[in-house]
Amino acid sequence: MRLAGDPDHRPTEGAIAPEFLELVRYGLRRPKDERILRSLQAVDASLKVGLPAGPSWRRYVGDQYGEHEDGSPWDGSGRGRPWPVLTAERARHFYSMSLPAAEMVRTLEGFAGPGLMLPEQVWDAPDVPSRGLVLGKGTGSVAPLGWAHAEYLELLTTIALAGFPDIVLPARRRYTEGQPTEPAFVWSHRHQITKLAAGRRLRVQLPRPGTVHYTFDDWATHSEAEATDTTLGVWVAEVPSNRLSAGTNFQITAHYFTGWEGKNYTLTVE
Q1: Rg of the Cα trace of the chain?
Q2: Structural domains in the chain?
Q3: What is the distance between the alpha carbons of residues 96 and 98, in angstroms, rounded to a whole number?
Q4: With contact defined as beta carbons under 8 Å apart, do 129 and 58 qualify?
Q5: 77: which residues sit within 8 A by CB, 6+ positions away?
Q6: Which pLDDT belongs to residue 1?
Q7: φ, ψ dihedrals at 267, nearest 5°
Q8: Which pLDDT tens digit goes with each residue over 250-267?
Q9: Lowest mean pLDDT: which of 22-31, 155-164, 179-188, 203-212?
Q10: Which of 22, 62, 86, 229, CA to CA, is 20 to 30 A from 264?
């Protein structure tokens, strides 16, 4: 997730940051997924800031986009300050877990300045009157920040409709509804695996349109599966190897519009 107003400073590899909440936002993870909750604990320990209106969060550990400790303006370095937009994102997550979010809405409103404008960042240190910096109010950053206002309005809509407008329903059905399934093993000409685990399916990637022919009885019989265009430059067919018991060998090959692959490939179920 790239935040407005800061094209040059991004989290370094391994830095703690709350971007993973986007997985919940779009339906790729459940709100109470154990991994999400553990990650939020780490975020709160490192990035959460208590302010007069309520909590907010810095973007990531080591962020240098913000005023210096004495309140002087950011000049290419500084210290990252809390972002109201992250309070709105956390409020939406609260609501997705069936927790009350009204208090978080009031917190977000408490960060607003003159004209009820939500700022990009809020000051999280003692007041610096000479620079117009007040604890819990906007810094010298962008105000109004359109993104923060958009998150605020979407939060109100979410609560009013008791729904989540950003959920991608096909993604939610695939990743968070029903029992999770083990991913298929993938075979391609560049990655010619020879073994796969029992109970797992096999997906065969082809470099052009064709069908995958496979046999579970050394070609006494065979079946075929037409490869589907992924629109990514590869065609994929699925072999139901999950039916086979451990220790079984089976073979695959391919047929294209121009003719046969010219070679059989053997795989073993372990």
Answers
A1: 26
A2: 21-175 (1.50.10.10), 185-269 (2.60.40.10)
A3: 5
A4: no
A5: 64, 68
A6: 37
A7: -125, 150
A8: 999 999 999 999 999 999
A9: 179-188
A10: 229
Peptide bond into 209 cis (omega under 30): no
In whole angstroms, what is the distance from residue 239 CA to residue 214 CA? 7
Q: How confident is the model at residue 11 (pLDDT cuts 50, 70, 90)?
A: low
> What is d(CA 218, CA 260) in angstroms, rounded to the nearest whole number?
18
Q: Residue 191 corresponds to which tokens in the numbers above? A: 């990655």
Q: Which residues contact 142 (CB under 8 A, 6 or more apart)?
A: 4, 5, 119, 120
CA distance 175 to 31: 12
Alpha-carbon distance of 208 to 234, in angstroms, equals 6
pLDDT tens digits along 113-136 = 888 999 999 999 999 999 999 999
Flag whether pLDDT at 167 surpasses 50.
yes
What single-letter DSSP state applies at residue 253? E
